[in-house]
Design a protein that fits this description.
heterodimer; A: about 600 residues; 3 domains; 18 helices; B: mainly beta; eleven-stranded mixed beta sheet; five-stranded antiparallel beta sheet; about 40% strand; elongated
Chain lengths: ~600, ~375
């Protein structure tokens, strides 16, 4: 689709607590993000009108930019010099975002495909129902009744395959008669994207009770997943049904120059575009207060997961519950009483808007963030897999390797770029802290670039890309991405002090850094944004930097506000079990990269 | 501009409290607008659809799914008793006759000739919605519920567990900084809402449950005790449905933290009065905090409606809500507008707090809450 000619764009993201507005202007031939404003989201009482928060955030942009954008409650279009904008676009996750329940005949096959489809559409998946999910029929019905989703997605059966399993699921849904989360007196939308032979039966069972929408099968054959038609229907129904029930959204839809899309769907879209444009594998993470979203594009396959209860404020206590205290403590470079730490975490949970004031408190929050990031990636790896149940042609070597279908697509050695977003990563006082948090939690392997989203504008750019790709790409490259640098991490293990990596880094201007770095160390070399350096690396026998164990690697390294991080701490990264030794080693590493202003 | 501070918890001697009492599904409203109600009155009633049970006829009768309806003895919407025959086969030899009986008293919801599944539904269960507070029915929402209004003293806690309850206010701490001991609680406290000081340990909470106290209001508890009460680590602060035998409300936070003097004195002043309280907490968008509502004596005229909450200004009383100095109370001395570098090296908006002893501290605005009245 051709780009719409635009010079001035105002975009908002209506989050569950804050509405953020950004102004994008064409400067010469390039689009740049110029001003930003924010205001509390106004979906709930006493306002109950999302547009109030939108207008307040735009008003802040008006004040900062001097551009008159609003005429009362109207957005002035088109732009006329210092007045108005050419288009207004928005994303939304207010009011809890889009909450869906999905169902598929077999949990690991159509159930998983349905889950991937809903997640890719920007939804939070409340539950996955399947014929073989281990629950008895009445338990399934009870569960559907308890949940109040915004929408359901029913799949099941390949085309020409099983009819009875998917009909059985439809019968359960019909018996449960679930009610929508928002609004009374409208029919809950349900998308059927399963075996086309079951369509008539599904219409008979659900047609009268629910707002049934039938689309192409998401798994027409075992070997093929076809998620896009159902994903588009999710977006359509999100606008037609769900958004119509949320306070003020009818007005907001009328104000927008392009369809509103769910925030995570917009972020996913922009990450997918980056991967496609650069022909690279990308991992994106947005760690928020309540949830952590993970996006990946590996071998051109896009996946998104949302860990609904992993976050840094509302869900901070759940990170403790899921990770366990020891896993959090292993990242804290000082000793702390367990009761004290537990109380501190709970106090953050009940007063989620507070911020760390002392360096100790910052270290604790960043330790918790590492675990939230790690857990969210673990969950992502489980869903970002190849199709299960696919017949594979195996060679002799495959048979020896015991490769099965449904293997994770996430291979850290093949990862080229990781993009972090969310307050704890985007606003870390020192950029190197974001680098280390992501390196630790993801255990980056080989050569990986790192970046953060400067002010969380990926949602805005995702929706903008649907009307003007150049505007979105320009702003993304110039104003959204803050490149932190590159991590160089050989994979392998040894004893501390043993030979691990000999490297030579030729910096701009010809300066050379050469070192034989033993196992168990961290180094950080300055290399600014936009600069490159030549790396000649010789990993020790047993260590792999991407070219194979013990194989040398020569490549170009990109700089960033952090620099080049050489990490010989080994993969997997194992910390000493002894508390004193652990504190000692954490302190050594922190000092090596100047991680914190002071260390005990 | 967004508020750069946490609005405080409300602690007020008199306000008009309006409680929306809404059924989960549509039902019948039992009271009229203007009617006086007490906390235990039923204000609305609904019939929750009964549980659904599944019986697979195909497996049990060894028939084809498409034949299911032919072998049914009961039709859709028909009433059935437990153990009553709902389907049977028709073999040539009676010896091979197989009967399928109903697992419940209820109705036949549906019979499927695709899956051979029969769904049976239990009779609906009545749900009674109580008034929760003493007051007057201010508004009736047809088929959905009511708004009960009351002039009352109102105290919000920061976190709670356990549902709605009511009882007489009783003080068990002499001062707001007192840590309660199990011996402070006795059998006379049955059905009462106990007002404590800084901290309640697990033995104290256990003792309160043992004597069947209705509720306990306290400055703080330890997280490890919360874990013991719930039997698990609480991941997300959405509470109110726990069945622990008591409603527990903490007013300050986790740890041993003296109850704010204003809160303590207000509650102590209401000793002997009937109150309603709820531990329900939801710390997400649409925040719900636990609360204690102490309706004024009958006949009290309606107080003025709640005024607009004002932002912070010099002199505003505040509470520090993050380490260091967590729990300390003071007043705003100044609100510098420029961003200030704090020890973490972040640049944030700060304020200067003056404590009662005259000392001062610089604190991020995000780390204080105003003490609302």
């Amino acid at each position: 689709m051709a780009d719409r000619p635009l010079n001035v764009i105002i975009a908002t993201d209506c989050g569950s607590t804050t509405t953020k507005a950004i102004l994008i202007e064409k400067v010469g031939d390039t689009y740049r993000q110029t001003f930003r404003g924010e205001a509390p989201t106004t979906v709930e009482a006493p306002f109950e009108d999302v547009t109030k928060g939108v207008l307040n955030s735009i008003q802040e942009v008006e004040e900062l930019s001097g551009r008159k954008i609003l005429d009362g409650e109207k957005i002035i279009t088109p732009n006329n010099g210092k007045t108005g904008v050419d288009i207004y676009v928005s994303t939304s996750s207010a009011g809890g975002g889009l909450q869906m329940m999905v169902a598929g005949a077999v949990a690991a096959m159509t159930g998983e495909s349905a889950q991937r489809c809903a997640l890719g559409g920007g939804a939070i998946v409340m539950d996955v129902l399947a014929s073989n999910d281990g629950r008895a029929g009445h338990e399934k019905i009870e569960r559907i009744r308890q949940l109040r989703p915004d929408m359901l997605l029913l799949s099941g059966g390949t085309d020409g395959g099983t009819v009875s399993h998917v009909v059985e699921l439809a019968e359960y849904i019909s018996a449960a008669d679930p009610k929508p989360r928002l609004g009374i007196g409208y029919k809950l939308p349900i998308i059927f994207a399963g075996n086309k032979d079951a369509r008539e039966r599904i219409k008979e069972i659900l047609g009268a009770k629910m707002s049934l929408d039938i689309t192409d099968n998401i798994r027409p054959t075992l070997e093929r997943e076809n998620l896009m038609p159902a994903r588009h229907r999710i977006h359509d129904l999100f606008l037609e049904h769900v958004m119509q029930q949320a306070p003020g959204y009818k007005k907001l839809i009328a104000m927008c120059g392009a369809p509103i899309i769910p925030t995570p769907a917009a972020v996913g879209d922009i990450i997918e575009r980056v991967a496609k444009k650069e022909k690279i594998n990308v991992l994106g993470v947005d760690i928020g207060g309540a949830t952590t979203d993970v996006f990946s594009v590996f071998k051109t396959i896009f996946n998104r997961t949302v860990s609904a209860n992993l976050g840094m404020s509302y869900s901070i206590s759940n990170v403790l519950a899921e990770a366990g205290l020891d896993n959090i403590m292993r990242w804290v470079p000082f000793d702390i009483d367990e009761q004290d730490l537990r109380n501190r975490i709970k106090n953050k949970m009940i007063r989620p808007t507070t911020i760390p004031f002392t360096v100790d408190e910052l270290m604790i929050e960043q330790a918790i963030a590492r675990e939230a990031l790690r857990l969210a990636l673990d969950q992502h790896k489980m869903l970002a897999v190849g199709l299960k149940g696919v017949q594979q042609e195996r060679s002799i070597s495959d048979a020896f390797a015991q490769t099965a279908s449904g293997q994770s697509l996430i291979n850290m050695m093949d990862l080229n770029l990781v993009i972090g977003s969310g307050g704890i990563l985007s606003h870390a006082p020192r950029r190197v802290q974001s680098m280390i948090m992501m390196t630790d939690s993801y255990q980056l392997e080989g050569i990986t670039r790192l970046a953060v989203d400067s002010i969380f504008m990926m949602p805005h750019l995702g929706v903008l890309a649907t009307v003007n790709e150049k505007a979105a790409t320009d702003a993304f490259e110039h104003d959204c991405m803050v490149y932190l640098g590159t991590s160089i991490s050989p994979v392998g293990t040894a004893r501390d002090g043993e030979r691990c990596l000999d490297y030579k880094l030729t910096l701009p201007g010809g300066k050379v850094v050469q070192e034989s770095l033993p196992y168990g160390e961290l180094r950080l070399h300055k290399l600014d944004v936009g600069q490159t350096a030549q790396l000649e690396a010789n990993p020790a026998r047993g260590f792999d930097l991407g070219a194979g164990k013990g194989k040398p690697l020569n490549t170009t390294i990109h700089g960033g506000v952090g620099g080049v991080l050489i990490d010989t701490r080994g993969r997997p990264l194992v910390l000493p079990a002894d508390k004193k030794a652990r504190v000692q080693v954490l302190t050594k590493w922190a000092k090596a990269v100047d991680l914190y202003p002071e260390l005990k | 501009m967004a508020h750069a501070y946490t609005p405080g918890l409300r602690v007020t001697e008199s306000a008009v409290i309006r409680k929306r009492r809404i059924l989960p599904i549509q039902g019948q409203v039992m009271v009229k607008a203007g009617q006086k109600v007490v906390a235990s009155d039923v204000v609305a009633r609904a019939e929750l659809p009964g549980k659904v049970h599944t019986v697979n006829i195909v497996n049990k009768l060894s028939i084809e799914a498409r034949e299911t309806k032919r072998f049914m003895k009961k039709k859709e919407t028909e009433l059935v008793r437990k153990d009553e025959v709902i389907a049977e086969n028709d073999p040539l030899l009676k010896w091979f006759k197989t009967r399928v009986t109903s697992p419940i008293d209820g109705t036949i919801e549906s019979v499927s000739d695709v899956t051979g599944q029969v769904l049976l539904r239990e009779p609906p269960k009545p749900l009674n919605l109580l008034a929760y507070i003493d007051g007057t029915v201010a508004e009736v929402i047809e088929r959905e519920g009511v708004v009960v209004e009351s002039q009352a003293a109102f105290v919000q806690g920061i976190f709670g567990i356990g549902g709605e309850t009511h009882g007489i206010i009783e003080t068990v701490a002499k001062t707001p900084d007192q840590d309660l001991k199990p011996g402070d609680i006795n059998l006379e406290h049955a059905g009462k809402i106990l007002i404590g000081g800084a901290h309640a340990s697990m033995p104290v909470i256990r003792r309160a449950i043992e004597v069947k106290a209705a509720g306990i209001v306290i400055g703080g508890i330890h997280d490890k005790d919360l874990r013991e009460i719930l039997g698990k680590d609480l991941g997300v602060a959405i509470t109110g449905t726990e069945q622990i035998g008591i409603t527990l409300i903490i007013t300050e936070g986790f740890g041993s933290i003296p109850m704010a003097r204003k809160t303590f004195e207000l509650l102590v002043g209401k000793r002997g009065r009937k109150a309603s309280c709820s531990g329900a907490t939801q710390i997400r968008a649409g925040v719900i905090r636990p609360e204690i509502v102490i309706p004024a004596d009958a006949g009290g005229a309606a107080a003025a409606a709640e005024g607009e909450r004002e932002g912070m200004k010099p002199g505003t009383p505040v509470r520090i809500i993050r380490e260091p100095m967590f729990g300390r109370l003071g007043a705003v001395k100044s609100l510098p507008s420029e961003l200030t570098k704090i020890p973490t090296e972040s640049h944030v908006r700060i304020l200067v707090v003056q404590f009662p002893d005259g000392s001062e501290a610089t604190i991020p605005r995000a780390n204080v809450e105003t003490i609302e009245s």
